[in-house]
Amino acid sequence: EGLEVSKLIVSAKADLERLREQVQNVE
To answer: How far apart are CA 27 and CA 24, in angstroms?
Structure first.
C-alpha cells in the first residue's frame, strides 16, 4: 500500500514538473 502511494506521488511530481516546463516555454 505504501509503495502504491509513493508511486502516485512520484508520478504526480513528474506531471507537475512537465507542466511547469510547458508554462515556461509558453512565456
So the answer is: 5
